[in-house]
Amino acid sequence: MRIDRLLFFLRFAKSRTLAQSWAEAGHIRVNGRRVEKGSLFIAVGDVITMPIGEVVITLKLLSMPFRRGPACEAQLCYQIID
Q: 11: phi > 0 → left, psi -120 to 50 → alpha, else beta; which?
């Protein structure tokens, strides 16, 4: 699944276009490497680091979401790492 679609499905971004602009701006890292394209494919087990407001969040992807469902469903797909 593409990083922009994943962030939209996990409810971190309000739209896929917004998630794509975050990725292209270089604000997101996957497994420690800077993301520069919204089309980067993500796999289960990848570690994603991104700023949300003034906080930097690091999360591990546990499973792939199949749709943009309710927040409680989206939260089952990842684990926040401290």
A: left
Do 23 and 35 contact (CB within 8 A), yes or no?
Answer: yes
CA distance 17 to 77: 21
pTM to 2 decimal places = 0.91
pLDDT in tens, the chain (82 residues): 999 999 999 999 999 999 999 999 998 999 999 999 989 999 999 999 999 889 999 999 999 999 999 999 999 999 999 7
Asked whether 55 and 49 are in contact (CB, 8 A), the reply is no
d(CA 18, CA 51): 13
The label of the residue with tokens 């971004």 reads 13
Task: Kindly write down the DSSP assignment for every residue of 24-61, as one continuous string.
Answer: HHT--EETTEE---TT-B--TT-EEEEEETTEEEEEEE
